[in-house]
Design brief:
The complex is a heterodimer of chains A (393) and B (347). With 393 residues, chain A is mostly helical. Chain A folds into three domains: 31 residues, no CATH class; 125 residues, no CATH class; 213 residues, MetI-like fold (Orthogonal Bundle), CATH 1.10.3720.10. Chain A has 19 helices and two strands. The two termini of chain A are 25 Å apart. The chains are: A mainly alpha (393), B alpha/beta (347). Chains A and B meet through helix 5 and helix 6 of A and helix 3, helix 4 and helix 15 of B.
Chain lengths: 393, 347
């Protein structure tokens, strides 16, 4: 059946809104993760000259001459562009932040003889293949540099992909840690949410309303406030430690804050409603006569649960788990406030590179990694469970 | 008045300030806000307006070279004098965002301490990273960085700033490197390894802070027994919250904020006049009693009460063995060492 055009038009403002406020800015940000546009405007001739270089030894005279010409042109044009290009190159090869502006200053005056000799006299760095490799890698317009960096990989001057040095490999560990924490939080939410949802779904009248309200209430309190409340409760001289000490249960305060325990606790507290609500919907949609019929036909209670109740509520379980898991994967505030240094998740690093070290390329590449991880999890879920609505099974 | 005249009037009003602004806006001075700018207002801004009959507008910012960059690039810069951190001074000077400073017009380079002199900026305040502990909980505290790293003599958590900057310098000094050699050693791969090895020895006992307000809070709550901190925050906690925190000045790491004049400022002459005014020792001497930062003109220390001077990074006994944070080093190495630091810290 064809829908009337008018109905489609009614959704146009919403689509436009989503496009302008959601898809476009996120797309523009992610785009930075796969492009490189800071070095080419400053060193256009050098990038072209390096295209034919094989990455071993130093490039030929024409690359040195192109570098000198580019730097002179940049000095007489937009002077701010050289430090910006240098900052990008510095992210690849430390030392560039000083090297490029210094070289630009020194080659400005005309000199006799070959460009190669003059540039090498300024700094021996220009005799290193990796110095030129960094410029070639940053030549853009498309670039795998940031995405590789987000996976602890890098290219050398010859273009071969290698592992990053052992002491700077961090992101794969962090990705695995994010997945593990999310999985843990999902499991705890399921274990706590299942009985609660069952209780809500099977109680009637005022009790059901009150129980549901208790689950919904946290939705109306800001996430930051709830996280901060845990800080007050869990800190060294906080309420929990004070109560345990007053009760004579412990002698010295327990370290409850700045660790994995606090992170999982805070996240479960925030995400529990997302598990309970789909489960309640699934249980309520479940025909109460079916378990009763199974029981009347002689099935033991555990058998009724395993063969009837559980399979019928699976879509709700799936929906709850995927909701909790995906939200947990992107958590930022709670681990940042409650966790220690080795409890930080991928989002913390995205924030770190976006706002603190102003390396937007890497921040965008990490976001891409996170997005792909979420996409794969959803696809896996779709494959295993199918996208049926809870209760519709 | 009908609608059309109102519209015309509005258009004229919108056009007028733009023209007026381009020709003769008031000198605009930008600083960090908060208690610091309140003190500056009393000591610098108001007296400057009264004594020189100049008008002065104040604004506040949170730093970031990108802000300055976009102001110059857009051509819509309304700031004249800005207080910047040392790193922004270095990058901004490189990128041509600031006017070169006419030192002769503000009293000459000899009128200031050597650390405050730069071709594009004049130092405004000095502040230090120091060791702090609570005398109420620990009578005999550490004396230097080696003690800070000594978990046998001083058990308990210690607060440090989350990031390689200052942390690696402290580790090297604790390992016996003299302040003058710190950046020489840190410039070599072996030196970086050495710093991380030293940090490894107390890794389990470090609580990492990310905001300057955390160290005094943690000390007060007993979360940490020792901590790295900004000297101003510790003095403020003592002065206003009735704390009895001790500051260890041995080998403190200090840095400066500087005044710069934005490139192309139409108020350059007034800006220089302002810098000359706030560069006088008699004027600068008013600031430290209100907020415990060191100031940069020579001859201020003699004008300060002894108890104020003792809590300043610029007191002779405090600055004697101090290390100045090297912005040049960190500009080149921050990316690489941050990556390594993040890896190390999250293992």
């Amino acid at each position: 059946m064809r829908r009337p055009v008018g109905a489609a038009l009614l959704t146009a403002p919403l689509l436009l809104f989503l496009l302008v406020t959601f898809v476009a800015p996120i797309g523009a940000f992610l785009w930075r993760g796969v492009t490189d546009d800071e070095v080419r405007p400053v060193l256009p001739r050098t990038v072209v000259a390096l295209a034919s270089w094989n990455g071993t030894g130093t490039p030929g005279e024409e690359a040195f001459a192109a570098l000198v010409e580019d730097l002179r042109a940049a000095r007489s044009g937009d002077r701010g562009a050289i430090p910006r290009a240098a900052a990008r190159l510095n992210a690849d090869r430390p030392g560039f932040r000083g090297l490029l502006p210094m070289t630009a200053r020194r080659v400005e005056a005309p000199f006799e003889g070959s460009a190669r000799a003059a540039v090498l006299a300024i700094s021996a760095e220009w005799g290193q293949p990796e110095t030129w490799g960094a410029i070639a890698r940053a030549g853009g317009p498309m670039s795998s540099f940031h995405v590789l960096a987000a996976l602890d990989l890098r290219r050398d001057a010859t273009g071969a992909v290698r592992q990053a040095p052992e002491d700077t490999r961090v992101f794969r560990t962090v990705l695995l840690r994010s997945l593990w924490i999310s999985l843990l939080v999902t499991a705890v939410c399921l274990a706590l949410g299942w009985p609660l949802a069952w209780l809500i779904a099977t109680s009637r009248g005022l009790a059901a309303t009150l129980l549901l309200a208790a689950v919904m209430l946290p939705f109306w309190i800001s996430l930051v406030v709830r996280t901060a409340a845990w800080m007050v409760l869990l800190q060294r001289e906080g309420i929990v430690n004070a109560a345990l000490q007053a009760g004579g249960i412990i002698e010295t305060p327990l370290p409850l804050l700045m660790n994995r325990f606090a992170v999982v606790l805070g996240m479960v507290h925030i995400l529990l409603p997302f598990m309970v609500l789909p489960l309640v919907a699934a249980f309520r949609g479940l025909d109460p006569r079916l378990p009763r019929a199974a029981a009347s036909l002689g099935a033991a209670p555990w058998r009724v649960f395993l063969r009837v109740t559980l399979p019928l509520s699976l879509p709700g379980v799936g929906a709850g788990c995927i909701l909790v898991f995906i939200q947990a994967l992107g958590f930022y505030v709670t681990p940042a406030l409650l966790g220690g240094p080795n409890d930080q998740m991928l989002a913390w690093f995205v924030g770190f590179y976006a706002t603190r070290s102003v390396n937007w390329g890497l921040a965008a590449a990490l976001s891409i990694v996170l997005l792909v991880a979420v996409g794969l999890c959803v696809a896996l879920y779709g494959r295993l469970a199918g996208f049926r609505r809870p209760g519709a099974a | 008045m009908d609608r059309r005249t109102i519209l015309k009037g509005a258009l004229a009003a919108a056009a007028l300030p733009a023209a007026a602004r381009a020709q003769g806006r008031d000198l605009t001075v930008v600083s960090w806000g908060g208690a610091y700018q309140d003190a500056q207002r009393e000591v610098y801004f108001r007296p400057f307006q009264q004594q020189t009959r100049n008008r002065l507008l104040e604004e506040t910012w949170d730093g970031g070279i990108g802000v300055l960059r976009s102001r110059i690039a857009s051509g819509a810069n309304t700031w004249d004098v800005v207080q910047v951190e040392s790193e922004e001074l270095l990058i901004g000077a490189d990128e041509g965002l600031f006017e070169p400073l006419d030192w002769a017009a503000i009293g000459g380079k000899d009128a200031y301490i050597a650390e405050a002199v730069n071709d594009y900026g004049v130092g405004a305040i000095l502040y230090s990273f120091i060791i702090a502990y609570d005398r109420a909980r620990m009578a005999q505290g550490p004396a230097n960085w080696a003690d800070f790293f000594d978990t046998a003599r001083f058990p308990g958590k210690r607060g440090m700033r989350k990031g390689p900057k200052t942390t690696l310098e402290m580790a090297l000094m604790a390992d016996g490197v003299a302040p003058a050699q710190v950046y020489e050693v840190l410039g070599t791969p072996a030196g970086v390894d050495r710093a991380f090895r030293k940090l490894d020895s107390i890794k389990a006992d470090i609580a990492w802070f990310e905001r300057g307000s955390q160290p005094p809070q943690w000390l007060a709550a007993g979360e940490v027994t020792l901590t790295v901190a900004y000297n101003g925050r510790i003095s403020a906690a003592n002065a206003t919250d009735g704390r009895n925190f001790a500051i260890v000045w041995t080998n403190n790491i200090f840095t400066l904020d500087s005044w710069v004049i934005m490139k192309g400022s139409p108020n350059k002459a007034k800006a220089v006049e302002f810098l000359k005014f706030v560069g006088q020792p008699a004027v600068q001497a008013g600031l430290p009693p209100k907020i415990p930062y060191g100031v940069t003109a020579k001859g201020v220390n003699e004008r300060l009460p002894a108890e104020v001077l003792a809590n300043l990074p610029t007191a002779p006994q405090n600055i004697a063995n101090a290390l100045q944070l090297s912005d040049r080093f960190w500009l080149d190495n921050l990316d690489r060492l941050t990556q390594r630091f993040n890896t190390w810290v999250s293992r």
